[in-house]
Amino acid sequence: MWRYEKRLQYPVNISQTNPKLAQFIISQYGGPDGESAASMRYLSQRYAMPYEKGKAILTDIGTEELAHWEIIAAIVHQLTRNLTPQEIEESGFGPYYIDHTTGIWPQAAGGIPFNACEFQSKGDPITDLFEDLAAEQKARTTYDNILRMVKDHDVCDPIRFLREREIVHFQRFGEALRDVQDHLDSRNFYAFNPAFDPGQRPCGQKKQP
Amino acid sequence: MTCGNTLLQKVYETGFSLDEITLYLDTHPTDKQAMEYYQYIRKANQDAVSAYEQSYGPLMINQVNSNAWTWTNNPWPWEGGM
Ligand SMILES: [Fe+2]
Fold first, then answer.
1. How far is residue A15's CA from residue A25's CA, in Å, rounded to a whole number?
2. B15: which chain A residues are within 8 Å (Cβ-Cβ)?
3. What is the pLDDT of residues A62-100, one digit of tens each?
4. Whole domain around residue B3: which residue ranges?
5. Is residue B64 part of a domain?
6. For residue A202, is pLDDT > 80?
7. DSSP per-residue letters across A151-206
8. Which of A145, B23, B39, B73 would suit a FRET pair with A87, their CA atoms being 20 to 30 Å apart?
9. DSSP codes, A61-83
């Protein structure tokens, strides 16, 4: 169960509009390594997580990603306020504007719509946590790419915050992975899926000495 | 709908009443009777939540009021029995 808190996790106050930049940054709203995929990935993976620490970290990071999704929307919204048709045309924002005006819609920077194929929920906590670690790095890289294109401090500031959170999430998922592995047979990490075959090995595998 | 745990049952009931009255107030913000009901059920929900948390641990992450981190404790809501 969720309840909304009427504030952003980190404030966004952008005075200078920049539709070109908005089109880059929207990738973190609906792109392949964006915040919507992050939240859906972690919240969906919880049901196959057998251990308390993992259940908590997937719930809490999945929740924080929703707050990041909102921050991205706020940035895009403020970057596209009060645009004139001329600004739209000159900035290259035209194709987005034709379909969505200045509404917020989950797409990648290249215009590809949000797609659940951008994340996986594999039903195996080891597999899932390795995906999560990669996802956090991919998001961090995307923020690095965005930061190279940004000169406005008002935009840099919240983007830097989001980038740092990816690093913290990577760290926490690494700890959760170690916790999962500590629950397994220490001589044989990958012999079975702890969500599906608890305490036993799949057919045909011998217990190691 | 019943959940077997009377303290949690109260949380479910008052929580849903809150969901219902808040949507109504969003579109009827000047309805005095609805506003009175909101204040009544808000209090009832707060009381139900604290009574439940005292026995079973935190419902929200900012409500852990012990020295131990009980937030991670089983059971989690999707596992049933809650
Ligand atoms: Fe993240």
1. 16
2. 1
3. 999 999 999 999 999 999 999 999 999 999 999 999 999
4. 1-57
5. no
6. no
7. --HHHHHHHHHHHHHHHHHHHHHHHHHHHHHHHS-TT-TTSS-TTTSTT---TTPP
8. A145
9. HHHHHHHHHHHHHHHHHHHTTT-
Establish if B66 belongs to a structural domain: no
Structure tokens at A137: 């790095």
User: ∠ at Cα A198 (A195, A203), nearest 5°?
Assistant: 105
Query: What's the CATH number where A127 sits?
Result: 1.20.1260.10
Q: Does B61 touch chain A (CB under 8 A)?
A: yes
Which tokens go with A45?
Answer: 């993976």
Provide the number of structural domains found in chain B.
1
Q: Tell me, what amino acid is at B4?
A: G
pTM (predicted TM-score)? 0.91
Residue A203 within any structural domain of the chain:
no
| Domain assignment present for A169 | yes
Q: Looking at the DSSP assignment, which residues form a beta bridge with residue A107?
A: A113
Residue in chain A lying closest to B71 (CA):
A56
B73, part of any domain: no
Q: What is the ipTM of this complex?
A: 0.86
What is the pLDDT at residue A209?
A: 42
Q: What mean pLDDT comes out for the span A5-9?
A: 96
The two tokens of residue B62 are 């900012």
Q: How far apart are CA A71 and CA A39, in angstroms?
A: 13
Answer whether A56 touches B (CB < 8 Å): yes
Q: Is B62's Cβ below 8 Å from some Cβ in A? A: no
Task: Reduce the DSSP state of residue B2 to 3 states and report it.
Answer: coil
What is the residue range of A140's domain?
Answer: 19-182
The partner residue sitting opposite B61, judged by closest CB among A47, A55, A60, is A60
**Smallest CA–CA distance from A4 into chain B, residue:** B19
Structure tokens at A126: 């080891």
